[in-house]
Amino acid sequence: MTETAEARLKRMRMRSWRRGTKEMDLVLGPYADACLAGMDEARLALYDALLNENDQDLLPWVLGQTPAPDALAGLIAEIGAFARRRMQPGA
């Protein structure tokens, strides 16, 4: 049985908020809430692939401590910028 678009977004949102580390919950959860519904199919597939990565790898990529894989680098940069904007006073 194929996953409906609605079920896919719900699954991806849940996986964004329930990562295993609180830090990544707080980075990916708000990003997913704000951005998933507006993504095209290619971007959703890329984000879905990102969700399969380990938090121990994701966090240093998002923080810019280690380089992200080329395939994910643009999305990781976008997520990092989103998280930094949220941390700004008054955001």
Description of the structure:
By secondary structure, the chain is mainly α. It has a single domain, classed as DNA polymerase, domain 1, CATH 1.10.150.250. It has five helices and no strands. Helix 1 runs antiparallel to helix 2. It starts with a helix and ends with a helix.
Query: Helix count, per DSSP?
Result: 5
In CATH, what is the class?
Mainly Alpha
Low-pLDDT stretches are none
The major sheet is characterized as: none
How much of the sequence lies in strands comes to: under 5%
Q: Any idea what the shape is? A: globular
CATH topology: DNA polymerase, domain 1
CATH superfamily: Flavinator of succinate dehydrogenase
**What count of structural domains?**
1
CATH architecture: Orthogonal Bundle
Fraction of residues in helices? over 70%
> Rg, please?
13 Å
Count all strands and give the number.
0
Overall SS class: mainly alpha
Element-by-element helix/strand order: HHHHH
Terminus-to-terminus distance = 41 Å
Task: Walk me through the topology.
Elements: H1 5-17, H2 22-35, H3 41-51, H4 55-63, H5 70-87
Helix pairs in contact: 1-2, 2-5, 4-5
Kindly list the characteristics that best describe this protein.
DNA polymerase, domain 1; about 90 residues; mainly alpha; 5 helices; about 70% helix
Summarize the model shown.
By secondary structure, the protein is mainly alpha-helical. It contains five helices and no strands.
